[in-house]
Amino acid sequence: MFFTPWTVPILLAFVLSMWAGSRVKGTFNKWSKVRPESGMTGYDVARRILDVNGLHHVPIEPIQGSNALGDHYDPIAKTVRLSQSVYYESTIAAISVAAHECGHAIQDKVSYPMLVFRHKMFPTVRLTSNIAPFLLIGGFLFKLPGLLLIGIIAYFAAVLFQVVTLPTEYNASSRARDILVGNGYIRNHEEGGVAKVLNAAALTYVAAALMSVLQLLEYIWMFNRSNDD
């Protein structure tokens, strides 16, 4: 088996990623059993947040056919889409996730720099993330430094996208918490549950970005070593 100086850190990052994924599911399930005193559903909270921020035109749609967490804000369609377990349910988990996605809609309205940059990167990243694995494999197999370098550059674009995602997600969560508390959608004793749901979700982005950065460093190390041979 081939080891590099980055093998152990990457394995540790992989373990962190698996743990983060498990934690976000466990945290969501735990707080999906706790009803907010307001009695509002994820849809109710989302609609109020959007309306208060002048986003009356932004629709909120349930994601059909699945209760899995696939909640997101679509900047192209200007639409908030919520999984059924968030859209229809009145739980701390549901209103936390709904508020977070509305945070992205507000970012879009105010042209939050990181979100704007992320959106501009998306078409390029969608292309480079698909071709990077083939370029990297081809470069390694056929010992073509030029092809390998192109693959690393293509992979770098995907890594940069993930890194830019971090402040975007944290900012959306910060906005969500401020709005939920400031507008009285949650009580003070419920804020801890909201924070745990949002922090657990954010950790998955941190783990994914960390793994990608370490893999990029490994590819660069392998590229430099191939040139030294």
UniProtKB/TrEMBL annotation:
Keywords: Membrane, Transmembrane, Transmembrane helix. Pfam families: Zn_peptidase_2. The chain crosses the membrane at residues 6-24, 197-221. The keyword Transmembrane helix applies. The keyword Cell wall biogenesis/degradation does not apply. This is Zinc metallopeptidase. It comes from Cohnella suwonensis.
